[in-house]
Amino acid sequence: xxxxxxxxxxxxxxxxxxxxxxxxxxxxxxxxRTSGGHRRYSKDSLIAFKDKKDNNKLTIGYCRVSSSxxxxxxxxxxxxxxxxxxxxxxxxxxxxxxxxxxNYKKKGLKELLAIIENRDVERIVVNYKDRLMRxxxxxLEEICKLNNVDIEIINHSExxxxxxxxxxxxxxxxxxxxxxxxxxxxxxxxxILKTNKQMFT
Length: 201
Description:
By secondary structure, the protein is an alpha/beta fold.
């Protein structure tokens, strides 16, 4: 039986060595150990693991709105993406997200990136391209390509005019910078009050 080192096993599966260590900690793929404590993976176990992982890959439907008052829009997105996945016979689940297209720390987006990194997804389905990201879409697209993940966009025609998109983008930028500015001022005010309190007590 042929055995591979962790470096060779990572190359065989197309993942990082850190991913193999994480899978070992999660009891997903446990290697054997040499007398010196080095990891060794049998090629047969790697092939079986790869086949099982490929067969279990999901389609992720990603639906996002910018604010909580857009619940009806979110429902429509979920319905459209669900119908599309069913019509194509995909095994899927939906990730619903809330936040600006400029916010890269959204809970749903972080979950999606983790799934992509773990190579548990075959494709991502979105209603419109900008539902994934308003800016930086090309970066996410490249990440997906590197992990053999397809992006399927249901509606390629824009649901907004260029002028409406531009207004949304400008408002999003203003909102982000305003939040940072007032957040910074708030922190400075708290620091000043804390210092004054220490001086006079």
